[in-house]
Amino acid sequence: MKVFRELIMSGRWAGLLGVLLVPGMALAGFSGHQLVSAGADREYTLYIPDDIPGGAMPLVFSFHGSGGYPQSQIDTSHFDVLAEAHGFAVVFPAGAFTNSVTERSWNANGETGVDDVQFVRDMIEDIAGRVEIDRSRIYASGFSGGARISSRLGCELSDVLAAAAPVAGLQYPDDCTLKRPISIISFHALDDQVNHYDLSGDSRPYWRMGVETALDKWRQANGCTLANEAVQVASGITKYMWSSCDTDAVIQFYQTVSGRHTWPGSDSSGALQNMDASELIWEFFRQHRLP
Questions:
Q1: Most distant pair of Cα atoms in the chain: their distance
Q2: What's the pLDDT tens digit per position in 58-69?
């Protein structure tokens, strides 16, 4: 497994590796896995908490940004720490698509080539052979390019995912037709210099729309009323919420004045420290499940 080998040799996994899971066994810690999906060799990193709860566990996907690795998303989100505290499994997939800017990205715009939607379906089945997962509580989150693929998955797998959480990369797929309304939580900074809050002439080719346009499309798709609640939760942070949506779907959006292109609460340079996106995402996820 190329990515898994690179992580071990680079030392970035020091102190993190657990035992390797095998089909039919739910052993705790980090483990690297590979599978063939849509004819391509793909890889992912799985984390199972040490204190495995009884019964089926929720499953959270956390997608790295374009050009990143599973380890970079582990370091950014610290979802393994939350998984340990709250008893869910978390998977950090490895991107294999080359977009208009970089490789190791995600096919978030449905272009020819890598099929990341099928990859997620295949990972779910592969993980289900290793640990008992609650199929009513599967979620997708991600940063930047990982947020864009989370947006696509929220549409194409709206009958599989209970909720989605794009951070610094919310979009709405042009060809999206929801199978059911899906709850969304998202975060974006007004000064994001990579995925611009407002679409502009110098926005990157993959960036199809501004954040408010994407929010409005999700609002319409979920059957939410136009009115929304707006609350200033901290200095420079406003929370917008649409709750009158079909089948009890909810949209929450945290607009931040600063923070640039980072994950709030992370160790990244310039990231906001008066809000923890990972904590808020898990709190949101735990409130939603498939009917």
A1: 52
A2: 999 999 999 999
Give CATH for domain 2-285: 3.40.50.1820
Residue extents of the structural domains in the chain: 2-285
Q: At what angle do helices 70-77 and 2-10 cross, to 10 degrees?
A: 60
**Taking Cα atoms as reference points, which of 5, 45, 44, 48 lies closest to residue 25?**
48
Query: Which residue is listed with tokens 């709750």?
Result: 243
pLDDT tens string 215-257: 999 999 999 986 688 999 999 999 999 988 999 999 999 999 9
- Number of CB atoms found within 10 A of residue 228's CB: 17
Within 13 Å, how many C-alpha atoms sit on residue 130's CB side? Answer: 26
What's the CA gap between 30 and 209, in Å, rounded? 36
256 Cα distance to chain centroid? 19
From the number of C-beta atoms within 10 Å of its C-beta (0-12, 13-18, 19+), residue 145 rates as: buried
Q: How far is CA 196 from CA 171, 204, 267, in A?
A: 11, 9, 22
